[in-house]
Write a structure and sequence with these properties.
heterodimer; A: alpha+beta; Immunoglobulin-like; 6 domains; 3-stranded antiparallel β-sheet; 17 strands; 10% strand; globular; B: mainly beta; Methylamine Dehydrogenase, Chain H; 4-stranded antiparallel β-sheet; 28 strands; 0% helix
């Protein structure tokens, strides 16, 4: 005879409810999930530093921020023989005596005896410590005001938080919600939701209650003076949104970049190359019109260098060629990606191909995506981060503390990858294989993140449904994620930062712009070229990096262009380009540029010290993590620069019978895409004229340029 | 013996099912964490709300009680060949105590105090001359008395666990004491001098219960001493602590196991826990004789009558259930 395992938790809850109702005459006792747990959360009992820690504290463990009410209920009422509550004498319960500091408690006084929370918990214990309705839960919270636009600092106002319960009722939970500000210098928030605004700019207040999260934005203009509306001519939808925000924030806009600044910036951003000497001279000598800029943009978008650079960007994102990959498979995968970039394949089509690929790694290149990991959970984390800009790893062990993802969400999403396996040199998909919930042990049917519908369990490849859902134009995260990444690549800062952490509590600086761009991207066939062109043709992209008055304080509203550190490969190629001596990579054909390297296993000390992306993990910073002393010393005195002075441009310049001024101008044009200023000429002309060793003097000039901040950054 | 599986509610011969929540006698039931049959088998004793309840061995209902003002009572044990009833408990995080009652008069004979925290477990050795007490303060203590005396003297404090000691048991041949802890370990100590002999770190979660197999089962002095442990890791493990060997793992549990008891003849091992189910295993082979639902809540305590005819279980809701084991044979 087989015995059916009882739904134990349900049994416990039911028994407790029955007992409580019978004893208390059918009255409505306080429910644990919505009545008691929020009190403990507010008191900090289940915070990460207290009993919410992975191993608990003092032998008492609670789920982090109460993400698992049923388990918390069991630990409080039943663990260790019910040690923590005393139903016969509720006030004698450890659950009250410890946090009220009647007994020694390392966490301090969390529930004062004369407080309402203490009374409620005491009442709940006296009522039999019931769980209450299993169905009753908080389904959403609203935060009011969602956006506060204040005209002055030193202002205080209150947030109001309302919980929407599963039974349709609403509850004011302002005093029970948890608050945190992402910028205390602008807006500090108290425990009761009181916001004190002390600085200028924009801050977000994250609000958390009963597993739900929300956010409120606080905006204070940077200056008292309104900016003139005509300081920022609006060329397209981007400029309209950016201009409107700048106007609201009283942020003046920097003027349009000079031609040299634009030319250098757009070359580096679109192709990873500096403008050639001839290009620079021609453009700087031209009419300097916006039409001329458009021609440059279109030429660059059509160039093979564009394909090289954006292939590198995409391969960095997809972590192609990390430690696990074989050389042949990496070459095949890289070639496939390059082909998609060259053909401007719609982005949704690329992602669908990646997510549904199977077969031999050499002949089915996108299948290499699944070599990122063997575990479906790891694959799910990669897929959500790369394609949805969403980090779900927290939910592997507990509900995400700053997002809505639960363990169930996590494991249901991971279930899409449960039947994928990497066998030999091939990716295979079987008709069996499940991901089990770590606590219940139950196999999880696949469900999209944030979706309500479970994918029917058939023998069909589950990933097809996943790819369809993910790339659907109704999926709010898919288009926003790639739009945000491309925005960051071109503007130096994402509309959401970090670019792989899109969530309601980390709102975009310009939510409407992000949405508008995402909609435009989706409705125009997920066309990457079009998106890139839209951005670089905007005035927002083309304004100068020089600040104008108080916009020097702005680091996120695009009132001026931000300095962008060049990716390691781009920097190394730029050095080779300026010096005229190419970098040589073992095993690669002569003339191979760093951005063209396949994978990351080609040895290059220069790339390593400059901080190339290892592709073992995310490299969203653009490939130059840190910098540090090693990098600085290497650039000052290492082989990357020193080996490129002899021969190359220095030799060619000296071989020409030209005045020193021309030599200086050429080096400035090559390195900085501008002519030297009068004071720079005044510094270098006499030096070169007086030099006993002209070669050394020119080398000094070149060294100085290559070690300058102006060279190292795309500005 | 027919070793068929029986459903608790269908095939077994339950003498009486009494959800004796004691509501008739008191308004607030307490979780039943301590159960013991008197040596003569005429009474079943359990913890009550600041008292000790004496229950019917037929239906588990409370017949009488006597006061014991410990806020929590964790464990109860009768002294073999004696008249002492040891009641372990205390005030969580404040103090622990084992109150020794003269069972005949139900009066307090001695109080064995235990600093800092609850006394979680209490057990006599087979001769009744040694008393082991596990404590939530991470230690255990061993007390000695002379035959016929009610005066106990502490002889060892066993320190070394990194968490509350939740279980303690004496080897039936008298050489060792074993303790189980929330630190997931089982430690084996010498009864001669309290020396730590060895530590078993096989369990993955708290060790909640320990029980030695009665020696009467074999009738052979050379029969290896076996001890069973129950854990939050959903296993029951069988050990030979005196030679440092884990013998078997019973994996039939789908949730933490809290309570274990051997039948007096040593042929059966009973387990119960979070699932609310009772399982009966063949003590030799770990073959599952039967399992069945006995509660909709967590079962914390099990006890077998001295003649092996009845099994009592107690759960969080305060319910005590008596099962007639004769129907299983």
């Amino acid at each position: 005879m087989k015995f059916r395992a009882p739904c134990f938790r349900s049994g416990v809850v039911m028994a407790t409810c029955l007992w409580a109702n019978s004893v208390f005459g059918g009255g409505e006792p306080l429910p644990f999930r919505t009545g008691i747990l929020p009190l403990l959360t507010k008191a900090g009992c289940n915070a990460g530093a207290c009993h919410g820690a992975a191993t608990g504290q003092g032998g008492f463990k609670l789920s982090l921020f109460g993400y698992d009410p049923e388990e918390d209920f069991e630990r409080i009422t039943r663990e260790l023989g019910g040690r923590r509550i005393d139903r016969a004498a509720p006030s004698e319960s450890l659950l009250l005596r410890k946090p009220s500091r009647q007994l020694d408690h390392e966490g301090g006084r969390r529930l004062p005896r004369d407080g309402g929370a203490y009374e409620k918990v005491e009442r709940w214990i006296a009522e039999g410590a019931p769980f209450g309705s299993q169905e009753l839960c908080v389904t959403a919270i609203t935060v009011e005001p969602a956006v506060s636009f204040l005209q002055a600092t030193n202002t205080t106002f209150n947030l109001h938080v309302t919980a929407l319960l599963s039974n349709g009722s609403r509850e004011d939970v302002t005093t029970l919600a948890l608050y945190s500000s992402n910028n205390d210098a602008i807006a500090d928030v108290g425990k009761q939701g009181e916001v004190h605004v002390s600085g200028r700019g924009v801050a977000s207040v994250m609000v958390r209650y009963s597993g739900q999260v929300g956010a409120a934005r606080v905006m204070v203009p940077f200056g008292d003076e309104a900016v003139r509306d005509d300081t920022f001519p609006k060329d397209n939808i981007i400029d309209e949104h950016i201009g409107a925000t700048l106007k609201r924030l009283h942020l003046p806009t920097s003027p349009l970049s000079r031609d040299g600044e634009f030319l250098r910036r757009v070359h580096l951003d679109l192709t990873g190359r500096l403008p050639s000497l001839e290009t620079a001279r021609a453009f700087l000598g031209g009419p300097g019109s916006l039409a001329a800029r458009l021609r440059v943009i279109d030429d660059l978008l059509a160039s093979s260098e564009f394909v090289d650079l954006w292939t590198m960007r995409l391969t960095d994102l997809l972590l192609i060629g990390g430690k696990r990959a074989s050389d042949d498979a990496t070459r095949s995968y890289h070639g496939w990606v390059r082909e998609q970039v060259a053909l401007n394949t719609p982005y949704d089509k690329i992602v669908r191909a990646l997510l549904t690929a199977r077969g031999p790694l050499l002949t089915a290149p996108p299948a290499n995506f699944f070599t990122l990991a063997n575990d479906p959970r790891d694959l799910a984390e990669h897929a959500s981060r790369i394609f949805l800009g969403t980090q779900i790893a927290c939910a592997r062990c507990h509900a995400h503390p700053a997002d809505r993802w639960t363990q169930e969400d996590y494991y249901r999403f991971a279930a899409y990858f449960a039947r994928v396996s990497h066998e030999g040199n091939s990716i295979k998909v079987s008709s069996r294989g499940e991901v089990d919930h770590p606590k219940t042990g139950a196999p999880m049917s696949p469900r999209p993140l944030g979706g309500s519908t479970i994918t029917p369990d058939t023998e069909a490849d589950r990933r097809i449904a996943l790819a369809g859902w993910m790339t659907d134009s109704n999926n709010p995260l898919f288009a926003r994620t790639i739009v945000n990444r491309i925005w960051k690549a071109l503007l130096g800062r994402g509309l959401v930062e970090p670019v792989d952490d899109l969530r309601p509590t980390n709102p975009a600086t310009h939510p409407a712009l992000l949405e508008a761009l995402a909609v435009d991207f989706s409705t125009h066939g997920h066309d990457l070229h079009r998106l890139i062109r839209s951005i670089v043709t905007s005035r927002t992209y083309q304004i100068t990096s020089r600040t104008a008055g108080i916009n020097r304080l702005d680091d996120r509203f695009f009132s001026h262009a931000y300095l962008k550190e060049m990716p390691a490969a781009v920097f190394l190629d730029a050095v080779a380009q300026v010096t005229g001596i190419p970098e040589v990579f073992d095993g690669c054909p002569e003339g191979t540029r760093a951005v063209q390297l396949i994978g990351v296993r080609t040895p290059s000390y220069a790339l390593d010290v400059l901080g190339r992306c290892s592709r073992d993990g995310p490299c969203e910073s653009g490939g130059r993590p840190g910098g540090g002393l090693a990098q600085a010393l290497h650039l000052i005195n290492g082989s990357t620069l020193n080996a490129k002075f002899a021969g190359g441009i220095v030799t060619r310049l000296l071989a020409r019978a030209s005045p020193d001024r021309e030599r200086i101008e050429e080096l400035y044009l090559r390195a900085l895409t501008r002519l030297p200023a009068a004071e720079e000429l005044a510094e270098w002309e006499p030096r070169l004229a007086a030099a006993l060793n002209p070669s050394e003097a020119v080398e000094d000039l070149l060294w100085t340029l290559l070690n300058s901040r102006e060279f190292a950054f795309n500005h | 013996m027919s070793r068929l599986h029986h459903d608790w509610g269908v095939a077994s011969a339950i003498i009486a099912l009494a959800l004796s929540t004691a509501r008739a006698l008191e308004p607030i039931p307490v979780p039943i964490t301590a159960l013991a049959f008197s040596p003569d088998g005429l009474a079943l004793v359990s913890n009550g709300s600041r008292r000790v309840d004496i229950r019917s061995v037929h239906d588990g209902s409370v017949r009488s009680h006597f006061p014991c003002d410990l806020p929590k009572i964790s464990a109860i044990a009768f002294q073999p060949r004696g008249n002492i009833l040891a009641v372990a408990g205390g005030e969580p995080a404040v103090r622990g105590e084992v109150r020794l009652f003269d069972w005949r008069t139900q009066t307090v004979a001695q109080r064995l105090t235990n600093p800092e925290d609850l006394a979680t477990s209490v057990r006599f050795n087979t001769s009744g001359t040694l008393l082991g007490v596990g404590s939530a303060n991470h230690s255990a203590s061993v007390w000695r008395t002379a035959p016929g005396s009610t005066n106990f003297t502490k002889i060892f404090t066993l320190t070394g666990h990194a968490g509350p000691v939740l279980a303690i048991a004496f080897s039936p041949i008298g050489r060792t004491i074993v303790t189980g802890s929330a630190d997931r370990s089982i430690k084996v100590w010498s009864t001669e001098d309290g020396r730590l002999l060895r530590t078993f770190s096989h369990h993955l979660e708290c060790v909640n219960a320990l029980v030695f197999r009665p020696q009467a089962a074999s009738g052979d002095e050379a029969f290896p001493v076996a001890c069973a442990s129950a854990s939050d890791d959903r296993t029951v493990r069988i050990w030979q602590p005196e030679i440092g060997r884990m013998v078997r793992i019973i994996r039939q549990h789908r949730a933490p196991a809290f309570a274990l008891v051997y039948a007096p003849d040593g042929l059966s091992l009973f387990s119960a826990g979070k699932e609310g189910r009772i399982r009966r295993f063949d003590a030799e082979s770990d073959t599952l004789f039967y399992e069945g639902s006995a509660s909709s809540d967590w079962i914390y305590a099990l006890a077998v009558s001295p003649d092996g005819s009845k099994l009592a279980s107690g759960d969080w809701s305060g319910a005590v259930l008596i099962r007639d084991l004769r129907g299983d044979k």
